[in-house]
Design goal:
heterodimer; A: about 230 residues; mainly alpha; two-stranded antiparallel ribbon; 10 helices; about 40% helix; about 5% strand; B: about 130 residues; about 80% helix
Chain lengths: ~230, ~130
Protein backbone atom coordinates (compact mmCIF):
# COMPACT_ATOMS: atom_id res chain seq x y z
CA UNK A 1 0.00 0.00 0.00
CA UNK A 2 2.65 2.45 1.05
CA UNK A 3 4.74 1.76 -2.00
CA UNK A 4 1.82 2.46 -4.32
CA UNK A 5 1.24 5.86 -2.65
CA UNK A 6 4.87 6.90 -3.21
CA UNK A 7 4.67 5.88 -6.81
CA UNK A 8 1.58 8.00 -7.28
CA UNK A 9 3.32 11.03 -5.76
CA UNK A 10 6.39 10.49 -7.89
CA UNK A 11 4.20 10.43 -10.99
CA UNK A 12 3.11 14.03 -10.36
CA UNK A 13 6.46 15.33 -9.17
CA UNK A 14 8.31 17.68 -11.57
CA UNK A 15 11.29 15.33 -11.62
CA UNK A 16 9.26 12.63 -13.24
CA UNK A 17 7.56 15.07 -15.55
CA UNK A 18 8.26 14.47 -19.23
CA UNK A 19 9.26 18.18 -19.52
CA UNK A 20 11.70 17.97 -16.58
CA UNK A 21 11.81 20.86 -14.10
CA UNK A 22 10.37 23.37 -16.53
CA UNK A 23 7.10 25.12 -16.14
CA UNK A 24 4.55 23.53 -18.48
CA UNK A 25 3.07 26.93 -19.39
CA UNK A 26 6.15 28.60 -20.84
CA UNK A 27 7.56 27.17 -24.01
CA UNK A 28 11.35 27.28 -24.07
CA UNK A 29 13.50 27.64 -27.08
CA UNK A 30 16.97 27.34 -25.62
CA UNK A 31 18.10 24.04 -24.17
CA UNK A 32 21.44 25.29 -22.82
CA UNK A 33 20.25 25.43 -19.22
CA UNK A 34 20.80 29.21 -19.00
CA UNK A 35 17.91 31.59 -19.16
CA UNK A 36 17.19 35.20 -19.85
CA UNK A 37 13.61 36.33 -19.94
CA UNK A 38 11.84 39.61 -20.05
CA UNK A 39 8.68 39.67 -17.95
CA UNK A 40 6.19 42.24 -19.10
CA UNK A 41 3.51 43.15 -16.59
CA UNK A 42 0.36 45.14 -17.12
CA UNK A 43 -2.96 44.31 -18.77
CA UNK A 44 -1.47 41.52 -20.86
CA UNK A 45 1.39 39.97 -18.87
CA UNK A 46 3.80 37.91 -20.92
CA UNK A 47 7.23 36.29 -20.60
CA UNK A 48 9.58 36.81 -23.52
CA UNK A 49 12.78 34.74 -23.66
CA UNK A 50 15.54 37.09 -24.71
CA UNK A 51 18.96 35.67 -23.85
CA UNK A 52 21.13 33.61 -21.56
CA UNK A 53 21.32 35.98 -18.48
CA UNK A 54 18.95 36.87 -15.72
CA UNK A 55 18.16 40.54 -14.98
CA UNK A 56 20.37 41.83 -17.77
CA UNK A 57 19.44 45.37 -18.64
CA UNK A 58 20.56 47.68 -21.35
CA UNK A 59 23.28 50.00 -20.05
CA UNK A 60 22.26 53.64 -19.68
CA UNK A 61 23.19 55.85 -22.57
CA UNK A 62 26.41 57.70 -21.98
CA UNK A 63 25.95 61.44 -21.76
CA UNK A 64 28.53 63.74 -23.29
CA UNK A 65 28.99 65.80 -20.16
CA UNK A 66 29.54 64.18 -16.78
CA UNK A 67 31.33 64.99 -13.58
CA UNK A 68 34.36 63.16 -14.97
CA UNK A 69 35.19 66.19 -17.11
CA UNK A 70 36.64 69.36 -15.65
CA UNK A 71 33.53 71.52 -15.76
CA UNK A 72 35.46 74.65 -14.89
CA UNK A 73 37.45 74.28 -18.11
CA UNK A 74 34.41 73.14 -20.11
CA UNK A 75 32.47 76.31 -19.31
CA UNK A 76 35.54 78.56 -19.63
CA UNK A 77 35.51 79.66 -15.99
CA UNK A 78 39.19 79.05 -15.28
CA UNK A 79 39.89 82.77 -15.39
CA UNK A 80 37.20 83.46 -12.78
CA UNK A 81 38.46 80.59 -10.65
CA UNK A 82 42.06 81.81 -10.68
CA UNK A 83 40.82 85.34 -10.02
CA UNK A 84 38.88 84.42 -6.88
CA UNK A 85 40.81 81.46 -5.53
CA UNK A 86 44.20 83.10 -5.32
CA UNK A 87 43.68 86.40 -3.55
CA UNK A 88 41.86 86.96 -0.30
CA UNK A 89 38.77 89.05 -0.93
CA UNK A 90 37.84 91.87 1.38
CA UNK A 91 34.65 91.31 3.34
CA UNK A 92 33.14 94.77 3.06
CA UNK A 93 30.73 95.83 0.36
CA UNK A 94 32.58 99.14 0.09
CA UNK A 95 35.66 97.29 -1.21
CA UNK A 96 33.51 96.02 -4.10
CA UNK A 97 31.94 99.45 -4.74
CA UNK A 98 34.72 101.86 -3.72
CA UNK A 99 33.31 104.82 -5.65
CA UNK A 100 29.91 104.71 -3.99
CA UNK A 101 29.45 107.62 -1.55
CA UNK A 102 28.10 107.15 1.95
CA UNK A 103 28.30 104.33 4.48
CA UNK A 104 27.25 101.16 2.66
CA UNK A 105 28.77 98.49 4.90
CA UNK A 106 25.99 98.70 7.47
CA UNK A 107 23.14 96.17 7.21
CA UNK A 108 20.42 97.36 4.84
CA UNK A 109 17.64 96.53 7.28
CA UNK A 110 18.83 99.29 9.60
CA UNK A 111 17.89 102.10 7.24
CA UNK A 112 15.30 100.26 5.10
CA UNK A 113 17.66 100.15 2.13
CA UNK A 114 17.77 96.36 1.74
CA UNK A 115 17.28 94.80 -1.68
CA UNK A 116 15.07 92.15 -0.07
CA UNK A 117 12.54 94.80 0.84
CA UNK A 118 12.42 95.87 -2.83
CA UNK A 119 11.55 92.28 -3.80
CA UNK A 120 9.10 91.69 -0.96
CA UNK A 121 7.41 95.08 -1.30
CA UNK A 122 7.93 96.24 -4.88
CA UNK A 123 7.63 99.99 -5.39
CA UNK A 124 4.73 101.43 -7.33
CA UNK A 125 5.71 101.44 -10.98
CA UNK A 126 4.25 101.57 -14.43
CA UNK A 127 3.67 105.29 -14.42
CA UNK A 128 5.36 107.50 -16.97
CA UNK A 129 8.32 109.49 -15.65
CA UNK A 130 7.84 113.13 -16.55
CA UNK A 131 10.02 116.17 -15.85
CA UNK A 132 8.88 118.31 -12.95
CA UNK A 133 6.76 121.33 -13.77
CA UNK A 134 7.48 124.78 -12.27
CA UNK A 135 4.68 124.32 -9.75
CA UNK A 136 6.11 120.98 -8.68
CA UNK A 137 9.59 122.48 -8.40
CA UNK A 138 8.22 125.08 -5.98
CA UNK A 139 7.83 122.22 -3.54
CA UNK A 140 11.62 121.91 -3.47
CA UNK A 141 12.21 125.54 -2.50
CA UNK A 142 14.54 125.29 0.50
CA UNK A 143 15.44 127.50 3.43
CA UNK A 144 19.07 128.63 3.55
CA UNK A 145 21.34 127.10 6.19
CA UNK A 146 23.06 123.83 7.09
CA UNK A 147 21.34 120.49 7.59
CA UNK A 148 20.69 119.16 11.08
CA UNK A 149 23.50 116.87 12.28
CA UNK A 150 21.52 113.65 12.04
CA UNK A 151 21.43 113.97 8.23
CA UNK A 152 25.14 114.61 7.78
CA UNK A 153 26.31 111.00 8.20
CA UNK A 154 26.60 110.44 4.45
CA UNK A 155 29.54 112.82 4.25
CA UNK A 156 31.87 110.20 5.66
CA UNK A 157 33.24 108.20 2.76
CA UNK A 158 34.18 104.56 3.27
CA UNK A 159 37.55 105.06 1.52
CA UNK A 160 38.78 107.22 4.36
CA UNK A 161 37.74 104.59 6.86
CA UNK A 162 39.79 101.95 5.07
CA UNK A 163 42.86 104.14 5.01
CA UNK A 164 42.61 104.71 8.74
CA UNK A 165 42.10 101.03 9.43
CA UNK A 166 45.12 100.16 7.33
CA UNK A 167 47.24 102.69 9.14
CA UNK A 168 46.10 101.41 12.52
CA UNK A 169 47.14 97.93 11.51
CA UNK A 170 50.53 99.15 10.39
CA UNK A 171 51.10 100.96 13.64
CA UNK A 172 50.30 97.86 15.60
CA UNK A 173 52.90 95.96 13.64
CA UNK A 174 55.64 98.55 13.72
CA UNK A 175 54.85 99.88 17.17
CA UNK A 176 55.44 103.47 16.10
CA UNK A 177 53.28 106.24 17.48
CA UNK A 178 50.75 107.63 15.02
CA UNK A 179 50.84 111.26 13.95
CA UNK A 180 47.64 111.23 11.89
CA UNK A 181 45.29 109.83 14.49
CA UNK A 182 41.67 110.73 14.05
CA UNK A 183 39.59 112.44 16.71
CA UNK A 184 37.44 109.35 17.07
CA UNK A 185 40.32 107.12 18.16
CA UNK A 186 39.65 104.49 20.76
CA UNK A 187 40.62 104.91 24.38
CA UNK A 188 43.08 102.00 24.15
CA UNK A 189 45.18 103.91 21.66
CA UNK A 190 45.28 107.00 23.82
CA UNK A 191 46.33 104.80 26.69
CA UNK A 192 49.15 103.42 24.54
CA UNK A 193 50.22 106.97 23.75
CA UNK A 194 50.32 107.88 27.39
CA UNK A 195 52.34 104.80 28.13
CA UNK A 196 54.80 105.62 25.39
CA UNK A 197 55.05 109.20 26.65
CA UNK A 198 55.85 107.87 30.09
CA UNK A 199 58.53 105.65 28.59
CA UNK A 200 60.03 108.62 26.81
CA UNK A 201 59.94 110.61 30.01
CA UNK A 202 61.73 107.82 31.88
CA UNK A 203 64.41 107.61 29.20
CA UNK A 204 65.00 111.33 29.39
CA UNK A 205 65.38 111.08 33.18
CA UNK A 206 67.93 108.31 32.80
CA UNK A 207 69.89 110.34 30.24
CA UNK A 208 69.93 113.35 32.56
CA UNK A 209 71.17 111.21 35.45
CA UNK A 210 73.94 109.78 33.27
CA UNK A 211 75.00 113.24 32.19
CA UNK A 212 75.04 114.41 35.78
CA UNK A 213 77.21 111.44 36.74
CA UNK A 214 79.60 112.19 33.88
CA UNK A 215 79.82 115.83 34.93
CA UNK A 216 80.52 114.80 38.51
CA UNK A 217 83.20 112.39 37.36
CA UNK A 218 84.77 115.08 35.18
CA UNK A 219 84.86 117.56 38.02
CA UNK A 220 86.28 115.06 40.50
CA UNK A 221 90.11 115.13 40.93
CA UNK A 222 90.36 111.41 40.20
CA UNK A 223 89.04 111.85 36.69
CA UNK A 224 90.77 115.06 35.84
CA UNK A 225 93.86 113.27 34.57
CA UNK A 226 91.84 110.59 32.88
CA UNK A 227 93.41 107.80 34.94
CA UNK A 228 91.88 105.05 36.94
CA UNK A 229 92.14 105.14 40.74
CA UNK A 230 94.62 102.29 40.64
CA UNK A 231 96.85 104.07 38.15
CA UNK A 232 96.69 107.24 40.18
CA UNK A 233 97.96 105.44 43.25
CA UNK A 234 100.95 104.22 41.29
CA UNK B 1 24.91 92.31 -26.17
CA UNK B 2 24.26 91.54 -22.52
CA UNK B 3 27.62 92.86 -21.35
CA UNK B 4 27.29 96.15 -23.27
CA UNK B 5 23.76 96.71 -21.94
CA UNK B 6 24.99 95.99 -18.43
CA UNK B 7 27.79 98.49 -18.90
CA UNK B 8 25.26 101.06 -20.10
CA UNK B 9 23.12 100.43 -17.05
CA UNK B 10 26.15 100.67 -14.78
CA UNK B 11 27.17 104.00 -16.34
CA UNK B 12 23.65 105.38 -15.99
CA UNK B 13 23.43 104.29 -12.37
CA UNK B 14 26.81 105.85 -11.61
CA UNK B 15 25.70 109.14 -13.20
CA UNK B 16 22.48 108.97 -11.20
CA UNK B 17 24.33 108.36 -7.93
CA UNK B 18 26.76 111.16 -8.68
CA UNK B 19 23.84 113.52 -9.32
CA UNK B 20 22.26 112.52 -6.01
CA UNK B 21 25.59 113.10 -4.26
CA UNK B 22 25.77 116.60 -5.73
CA UNK B 23 22.20 117.30 -4.62
CA UNK B 24 23.22 116.19 -1.13
CA UNK B 25 26.11 118.66 -1.13
CA UNK B 26 23.88 121.51 -2.33
CA UNK B 27 21.19 120.71 0.20
CA UNK B 28 23.50 120.07 3.18
CA UNK B 29 24.38 123.77 3.40
CA UNK B 30 21.79 125.44 1.25
CA UNK B 31 22.35 128.93 -0.13
CA UNK B 32 19.50 130.94 -1.73
CA UNK B 33 21.44 131.34 -5.00
CA UNK B 34 21.68 127.52 -5.30
CA UNK B 35 17.95 127.12 -5.91
CA UNK B 36 18.24 127.23 -9.71
CA UNK B 37 21.09 124.67 -9.62
CA UNK B 38 19.01 122.46 -7.35
CA UNK B 39 16.05 122.66 -9.73
CA UNK B 40 18.32 121.70 -12.60
CA UNK B 41 19.70 118.76 -10.61
CA UNK B 42 16.18 117.58 -9.79
CA UNK B 43 15.29 117.60 -13.48
CA UNK B 44 18.50 115.63 -14.15
CA UNK B 45 17.32 113.19 -11.48
CA UNK B 46 14.07 112.57 -13.36
CA UNK B 47 15.98 112.27 -16.62
CA UNK B 48 18.32 109.75 -15.01
CA UNK B 49 15.35 107.66 -13.88
CA UNK B 50 13.95 107.79 -17.42
CA UNK B 51 17.27 106.55 -18.81
CA UNK B 52 17.41 103.68 -16.31
CA UNK B 53 13.81 102.80 -17.17
CA UNK B 54 14.70 102.68 -20.89
CA UNK B 55 17.47 100.16 -20.22
CA UNK B 56 15.04 97.88 -18.36
CA UNK B 57 14.19 95.88 -21.47
CA UNK B 58 17.85 95.21 -22.28
CA UNK B 59 18.58 93.41 -19.02
CA UNK B 60 15.50 91.18 -18.85
CA UNK B 61 17.56 88.06 -19.46
CA UNK B 62 20.05 88.77 -16.71
CA UNK B 63 19.36 86.50 -13.75
CA UNK B 64 20.79 87.24 -10.33
CA UNK B 65 20.70 84.64 -7.51
CA UNK B 66 18.66 85.87 -4.55
CA UNK B 67 21.48 84.90 -2.18
CA UNK B 68 23.60 87.68 -3.70
CA UNK B 69 21.05 90.20 -2.43
CA UNK B 70 21.49 88.81 1.08
CA UNK B 71 25.23 89.36 0.85
CA UNK B 72 24.71 92.97 -0.29
CA UNK B 73 22.04 93.62 2.38
CA UNK B 74 24.47 92.46 5.06
CA UNK B 75 27.13 94.85 3.74
CA UNK B 76 29.28 92.00 2.46
CA UNK B 77 31.24 91.79 -0.76
CA UNK B 78 29.09 89.91 -3.34
CA UNK B 79 32.24 88.51 -4.92
CA UNK B 80 32.48 86.29 -1.85
CA UNK B 81 29.30 84.56 -3.05
CA UNK B 82 30.90 83.93 -6.46
CA UNK B 83 34.01 82.62 -4.76
CA UNK B 84 31.98 80.27 -2.55
CA UNK B 85 30.00 79.00 -5.54
CA UNK B 86 33.14 78.32 -7.57
CA UNK B 87 34.80 76.50 -4.67
CA UNK B 88 31.69 74.40 -4.01
CA UNK B 89 31.31 73.52 -7.71
CA UNK B 90 34.96 72.51 -7.94
CA UNK B 91 34.74 70.34 -4.82
CA UNK B 92 31.58 68.61 -6.12
CA UNK B 93 33.20 68.13 -9.53
CA UNK B 94 36.17 66.44 -7.89
CA UNK B 95 33.91 64.24 -5.75
CA UNK B 96 31.87 63.05 -8.73
CA UNK B 97 34.99 62.43 -10.78
CA UNK B 98 36.36 60.35 -7.92
CA UNK B 99 33.16 58.29 -7.81
CA UNK B 100 33.16 57.74 -11.58
CA UNK B 101 36.80 56.65 -11.54
CA UNK B 102 36.15 54.31 -8.61
CA UNK B 103 33.21 52.69 -10.42
CA UNK B 104 35.28 52.27 -13.59
CA UNK B 105 38.03 50.52 -11.62
CA UNK B 106 35.45 48.38 -9.84
CA UNK B 107 33.92 47.33 -13.16
CA UNK B 108 37.30 46.45 -14.67
CA UNK B 109 38.27 44.40 -11.59
CA UNK B 110 34.86 42.74 -11.56
CA UNK B 111 35.23 41.66 -15.20
CA UNK B 112 38.74 40.29 -14.55
CA UNK B 113 37.58 38.27 -11.56
CA UNK B 114 34.43 37.03 -13.31
CA UNK B 115 36.42 35.93 -16.33
CA UNK B 116 38.60 33.85 -13.99
CA UNK B 117 35.68 32.26 -12.16
CA UNK B 118 33.06 32.04 -14.94
CA UNK B 119 35.02 32.11 -18.23
CA UNK B 120 32.25 30.63 -20.41
CA UNK B 121 29.49 32.85 -19.06
CA UNK B 122 31.65 35.92 -19.39
CA UNK B 123 32.55 35.18 -22.97
CA UNK B 124 28.83 34.99 -23.72
CA UNK B 125 28.32 38.23 -21.81
CA UNK B 126 31.11 39.90 -23.79
CA UNK B 127 29.53 38.66 -26.99
CA UNK B 128 26.24 40.28 -25.99
CA UNK B 129 27.90 43.46 -24.91
CA UNK B 130 30.13 44.28 -27.82
CA UNK B 131 31.61 47.34 -26.08
CA UNK B 132 32.76 45.51 -22.94
Amino acid sequence: MMGDQFRKVEQYSPKSSPRGARSPVVSRQDSSGTLKTTILLGKNPSIVPSGPFYLMKEPPGESDLTGATNLMTYYGLEHSYSKFSGKKLKEQLSSFLPTLPGVIDAPGQQDNSSLRSVIEKPPVGGKELLPLSNIQLDGFRLHPGPLPEQYRYANATPIKKHKNKHKKHKHKESGLPSQETAISDTSSETHEKKHKKQKRHDEEKRKRKKEKKRKKQKHSPEHSSGMTPGQHSM
Amino acid sequence: MASSSLENLETQLELFIENVRQIHIIVSDFQPQSQSVLNQKLQTLVHGLQEVDKLKSQVQEVHVPLEVFDYIDQGRNPQLYTKDCIEKALAKNEQVKGKIDAYRKFKANMLVELSRTFPNELSKYRALRADE
